[in-house]
DNA sequence: ACCTGAACACCGTTCAAGT
DNA sequence: ACCTGAACACCGTTCAAGT
């Protein structure tokens, strides 16, 4: 049933994931779902937990050294592997963020990540701050609030925009110019994710070895 | 009307911000709102834009040096000031993240932030990556996906939990022990936000001066 | 024990009708 | 031009009734 819910969201979008629609998908005549799940929130918690288990299966199959300085590479690989799961379920990040009750599988994921940091010599205090600093990046996604020039305004910049937004226009002109054949989509999500991730991991690594 | 929507969300919670309820609040008999707004999405876009303007008013009143190395302190102050607005509207971050169309005021905010980075000597390329790395932190919030020990399980750790989650339990025991009189709420949101922010700003500053 | 259909209390939104 | 009420097509959920 949770599997069916995930499949439905993957194929038709998360907004069509409704109790009635899901029941139809399962050839159950409507409100029988309530015998397997307390309410819709409970169903969504289950969906999150199942995806988190999918992530755990993927990352726990990785076998790399994590002692000392190797922690960083190990954490990096783990996080980027977790990310591949979200690439299959692009509707899932907002769902993960909206959950009040935390999924046991998500807790387990973070437990193991703290384990890697401990292997690297982190104090519990630093590991704690590290989890906060990473936030959703620890699980492999980062909610993009604002996608500067998401492909909408490629070549032509509206009249007066340069005066009102001098810096963004400047940035747009230069970065788009650097890579002329991809004027739209000049933000490489994967690159940007790794850039931000490395910035944080490097910073943590520096704190680790200075203590 | 947008003001009324924000007040309603502040007082009664964002889930009660419904077209019918908002109309009642304005003593308008229900569906007259559609003469001032295309649909609910449009209303929410307006709400986001108004809050973003509130942020811009606050940060543009700041007058500090931003040339060269001073960029970092200027950006830090700006972001922490923006954050104070969200502390008044704690329901707003998910709304900001859910918007498809970007608010002009949000764009303006980011334009000025890039301006600070330019003052600090950033290339446009680095400023671009910096925006992505900061993500929602640039605007003063970070969606916490997982609040390790958010006050629920203070002293008593369930049987078997230590074996299943050795690292989180270890972390919980140590960090809670450090500050015994605040066993619940051992995560100081403001401190954690600044920790993560400084980690990123310091990393960017290092890249800035190494180029 | 499990499923069902009708019903309830809500949504956002449309539309024809009022002033 | 602005507001209104009824109605439509959806929700999640309750509940009494079926097998």
UniProtKB/TrEMBL annotation, chains A, B:
Domain of life from the UniProt record: Bacteria
Q: Which residues bind DNA?
A: 18-37
Q: Name one GO biological process term.
A: negative regulation of DNA-templated transcription
Residue ranges of the HTH tetR-type domain? 1-55
Q: Which SUPFAM superfamilies match?
A: Homeodomain-like, Tetracyclin repressor-like, C-terminal domain
Q: Name one GO molecular function term.
A: DNA binding
Q: Give the protein's recorded name.
A: Transcriptional regulator, TetR family
- Species, as recorded: Cryptosporangium aurantiacum
Taxonomic lineage is: Bacteria, Bacillati, Actinomycetota, Actinomycetes, Cryptosporangiales
